[in-house]
UniProtKB/TrEMBL annotation:
Annotated InterPro entries: F420-G6PD/mer (IPR050564), Lucif-like_OxRdtase_Rv2161c (IPR019921), Luciferase-like_dom (IPR011251), Luciferase-like_sf (IPR036661)
Pfam families: Bac_luciferase
Domain of life: Bacteria
Species: Siccirubricoccus soli
Name listed for the protein in its UniProt record: LLM class F420-dependent oxidoreductase
Record domain Luciferase-like: where: 19-238
Length: 285
């Protein structure tokens, strides 16, 4: 059965994450996802991928881990995910503890969506060289995997380097929460196959070449790399309210889709959520 979740930029003026989490769980949705931007520099060397000026919620968004934890405290079944966390801007030792802690507090409901970022100015404010961010991200993820799964982890790479250490708590999920790699085909798809437990493409980018075409290519790439495609479930972000497209996603074995919610209050969000609840019902969920 196709899983359906929601993704939202939480701000000081939007619906509270705890309230939204309850609403989503009551209506049987599977997950809630929160993007990440620590800040947005006033300079701009990289155009906004969506085209036009950058929308204000990018500047206003809350920290994803704190927002998700607020939702987790008032729910019992709803899965919570970063959609996505910018590992190129995060210390891996600190982030490893945050991930394992939120997985403990949510009793194993955390989904670790990760990405490498598009905003050069933002990334470089964190001391990361834009040109080598992909290798940095891989090393940080490998280091976190070691921390979560080993009693005395150590990691020695070009960008991440630490000797034997101890860190608890370990995550509830074993060997760790799924690392679901966000980004476009083919580069992010290759990263998902190399070190991930799933892939997050955006619906609008898949449409350009055909959803089924790119998903078939992704699965073929996984097999060529020695990965079982079943171990790399696909989550399509920001799908439109079109039941025929959703049925097609279900037919070709997409694991999960998420719909976008604007950074608004309850009165604006409930009609959208209720429309999606009806769509979910029509799909048999």
């Amino acid at each position: 059965m196709l899983k359906i979740g929601a993704v939202m930029f939480f701000t000081a003026d939007s619906m509270h994450p705890a309230e939204l989490g309850q609403v989503l769980e009551e209506r049987g949705f599977e997950s809630l996802w929160v993007p990440e931007h620590t800040h947005i520099p006033s300079s701009r060397r990289t155009p906004y991928p969506g085209g036009g000026p950058l929308i204000r919620p990018y500047y206003d968004i809350m920290d994803p881990f704190l927002a998700l934890n607020a939702a987790a405290t008032v729910t019992t079944r709803l899965r919570i995910g970063t959609g996505i966390a910018l590992v190129t801007q995060r210390d891996p030792i600190v982030t490893a503890k945050m991930v394992s802690t939120i997985d403990q507090l949510s009793k194993g409901r955390f989904l670790f969506g990760v990405g490498n970022g598009w905003n050069q100015d933002e990334i470089e404010n964190h001391g990361t060289a834009f040109a080598t961010r992909h290798k940095l991200a891989r090393e940080r993820i490998e280091a976190m995997q070691a921390i979560w799964t080993q009693e005395e982890p150590e990691y020695h790479g070009e960008f991440v380097n630490f000797d034997k250490m101890k860190q608890w708590p370990k995550p509830v999920q074993t060997p760790h929460p799924p690392i679901i790699v966000g980004g476009a085909f083919p580069y992010a798809a290759r990263r998902a196959i190399r070190y991930g437990n799933g892939w997050i493409p955006r619906a609008d980018r898949l449409e350009k070449d055909g959803v089924g075409v790119l998903i078939d290519k992704f699965r073929s790439m996984a097999k060529e790399a020695g990965r079982d495609p079943a171990s790399l479930p696909i989550t399509i972000f920001r799908v439109p309210e079109e039941i025929d497209r959703l049925k097609y996603c279900e037919e070709i074995g997409v694991d999960r889709v998420t719909f976008s919610l604007p950074a608004e209050g309850r009165d604006k969000l409930l009609p959208i959520i209720d429309r999606w609840a009806e769509i979910k019902h029509r799909l048999g969920g």
